Amino acid sequence: MLISLYILRLHIGPFFFGTFTVMFLFLLQFLMNNLDKLIGKGLDNAIILQVIMLSLSWMIVLAIPMGVLFSTLMAFGSMSGAHETTIIKSGGRSLWRMMMPIIFIGCGLFYGVYWFNDTILPESNHRFKILMQDIQRKKPTFAIESGRFVSQLEGYTILARKVDTASGAMYGVTIYDNGFSTRTNVLSADTGSIKFSSDYARVIVTLHNGEVHQLQKQKRTDFRIMRFAKHVISIAARDFLFQQSDVNLGSRGDREMSIADMRAIVFETDASINVTQKRIDTLMQDHYAEVMQARIAGDSSGLTDVLQKPSKPNDIDIQKRVMNRLSMLRSPLESDLFQASEQQKKKKVYLVEIYKKYSIPCACLVFVFIGCPLGMMSKRGNFGISAAISLIFYVIFWACLIGGEKLADRDLISAEVGGWFGIYVTGFIGLALTFIMNNEWSIKDIWLRFKH
Hints:
Blueprint: H1 2-38, H2 45-81, H3 84-90, H4 95-137, E1 149-150, E2 156-163, E3 170-177, E4 183-196, E5 202-216, E6 223-236, H5 259-298, H6 303-308, H7 313-378, H8 383-409, H9 415-438, H10 443-451
Antiparallel strand pairs: 1-2, 2-3, 3-4, 4-5, 5-6
């Protein structure tokens, strides 16, 4: 019992360190890819924080298995380097016995990550998608800069040759109004100011001492100039105020659904496939009955002879009837076959995603069988060796997982194999390494056993 507690204590620090390190790297990559979508739009800090918190959900699911692999490598590497594993083995404990408490923890993490992956992650992914769509719709913060054209207001282009940043006053203002289909208005003023209405629904532009140059597009000779002392323009300001959509109204993708939701879609797809298959069978049976009636009516020895040797007028009539029936049958049959093929592809996509809901959490358990024997082989518990080995096997796992998903989507392997392919490969490697280290085989022993 004390040995088990000691082994568990060695795992706690490296597990949290490895998990938070991976989450930090994922978060850094996320910010680098999405920072330009968040900054410069006048978003509240609470909205930006909400985006980051929602993105942490998928990072947790990916980081915990990595933390398990890193902690087992560190713990068993340090124990092996200090010859503690040798002492424990001399007391009658095998590698399996030393791994047993970690296996139990791995099972607990498997269930916890599975619950999180099926319950929390789909809702977080959906809310994240809706929130990012709302952010993308919001226009950047409206600002007038000296000597620069501003075209953020729909139908208007504004140029202020000088802007007083303290008071907000504009000098040498020119506004191009392209909101009319029949005419173009160009407004120029000595001074002006601009501000939003209280509800951010409109932009109010106030101009002083200026002119309006109006040109008719259809009749170029019709040109008018109107002078004013004060002129106020009210412009519709769409999407400058951030508004969050109702998360219950948006459609959900496969990664925004729980296993129960995806299974319901699979069942519906199966029912639709059965209906399509029955329709295809009915078409084929009707065609077969039509051909048999034609053969009986014509007293022919066979449909093939009729098609190949239409020597008699009656045979020619039969051939025309059969060919007409085939042309009528072709279009609905092709449509039904295409529909059945698309339904099968849709079903496989959801099935692969269902199996991935299980296989990704299962990595928490499989990586125990990789980290423990490799840690003993390395005989070192330092950060560099553990991080390098963890990265290699993590890349192998994800390459197999993504590759299996692609092969399943292309119908080269079954959905079950595609969803579990990463676990099959890394699980086999882990069990083989554990078996070899438990029996203390050397490379020479392994070669001799496989040779004979």
